[in-house]
Amino acid sequence: MWSIMAVMSAVLLGLYDVAKKKALQKNGVLAVLLVATALSTLFLAPFFRLGPAGDYLKLGLKAVLVTVSWISGMIGLKLLPITTVSTIKGSRPVFVVLLSIIIYGEHLNWMQWSGIALALLALYLLGRTSRADGTVQARRTGFIWMGVSVVTGVASALYDKHIITGMEPLFVQCWTNLFITAILAVCVLVQRLSAGASASRNFRFAPSPPQAGSPRLSEMNCPPVVPQGTSALRGGHGRPQFLETEAPLANRPAEENIQSDVSENNTPGSSRNHFQWDWMLVVVAVLITGADALYFFSLKEPGALLSVISVIRRASVLVTFVFGAILFKEGNLRAKGLNMLLMAAGVVLLLLGS
What we know:
Elements: H1 2-23, H2 29-43, H3 53-79, H4 82-89, H5 92-104, H6 110-130, H7 140-163, H8 169-202, H9 215-220, H10 254-265, H11 280-300, H12 306-313, H13 317-326, H14 333-353
Helix pairs in contact: 1-11, 1-12, 1-13, 2-8, 2-11, 3-7, 3-8, 4-6, 4-13, 5-7, 5-12, 6-14, 8-11, 13-14
């Protein structure tokens, strides 16, 4: 039963990745995360229960790991194609499988080992074909963010196995969601305050232009400022003359203009300063709520193997692959499609072996 719940969680997780990608087209990273998690917490409100103080501390640590993994992962999602992101995230089960065997002493039968081997091979080959997307060098920052997401995600998965033994699944999900919402709210507040402080530092009052006949203008030996609507001053060779402090934009260094555009428009997660309501955020919240609930309940089942559940959940790439091709028109699909068949075969073996 736990393997079936893991498959259902994988399907919802794949749809969740697609919905996130769509939601990020209208809002920044932190806004999407905060609103979706807050809505998810609201959906879980009827299931909140009180518990020991020590449990809250454990779930607080869990919330920090998840928040770091989510923020870094969604920044990477904005910078990279969804199929490439799914591939990088697919490396997570490799570490989870190895560490689950080492730390928790999990034992797999030959069919489970075969399924894991096929699934990991599919993820490896998918990673090689994804290089054809041309993003390895051009979007190196995206890969760095995804690396941070994978490391914290592995730590979070291993920690789940530890805490779920002494807590109920809904208790873990409810309070973790609430703590994540609080952390994200602080992150958004800090981001807004830093953006406001940065804008204040960069704001300058323009100096009043010197008037014709004034002593300052005479001392500077500069031509008078031409009133708006009159023709520009002409030098000896018919070229327009400008005050030294008011050089035209075309004459400014190109690097300065490019850097200004990047800092204002292309910063991950901060390119949209005004939140726009999008019903896709509700879809994101519903999908992640269902995916997490199925995951925690499957992990709580007797005999459940974290190594197998983790690999099955990575089969969400099957869903993101299909929607990445249909909705986002991503390329290199033929080679990736063959890898998806390997992944599907691996999942079937895992289900039969479990």
